[in-house]
Amino acid sequence: MRVIAGEFRGRILKSLPGLDTRPTPDRLREALFNVLAPRIEGATFADLYAGTGAVGIEALSRGAARAIFVEGSRTAAAVIGANLDALGIRPRAILHRARVSAVLAGLEADIYFLDPPYLLVEEYARRMAALGEKKPPLVIAQHASRLSLEDSYGGLKRTRVLRQGDNSLSFFEPFRAF
Prior knowledge:
The protein is α/β, with parallel strands linked by helices.
C-alpha cells in the first residue's frame, strides 16, 4: 500500500497481515480525493475505523492541516503510529486507540470518513445517526455497493454516491434551508 499523491506521493505504508482490516483500494482512494480536492486544504480530517491509517495519511499528504485517527485494534493502532512516525507527521495527527462509539461525541472535524469492517454493518446506522446530530460539513461512508444506506441521518442528507465495483462512497452534508 502506498500514498497516491501529494507531499508523500509514492511512499510505502505498513499494512496489517490477515483479512481483519480491509484497506481502501488505491483507485477508490484516488477517486475520493479527486472529489475532496477543493475541500481538503487546511481541513481537519477524521479517519474513523482507520485500519492502517492510509485514508487519513492521504488526507495529510494532500494538504489537510490535521488528521484524527480512531482505531480500536491495538495492532492496527500500532501500524498507524508506525506509518505516522515513518512519514514524520505525528505532530499533525491525533491517534485514538478506542472504539469509535467511545470518542465520536468529542471529536471535531471538517470531514469525517467512516469505514467500519463489513461484518459490523450495524455500525453504519449507529455512527451515521450520531454524526447526523453533530451535522459536520461533510461525512463520507465507504460501504459495500450491495449495502443500501439511508438517504438521510438526522441533519445529514446524502448528496452523492460514487460506485467502484464492490465498493461505494456515500457523501452526506447538512440539510440546507432555502
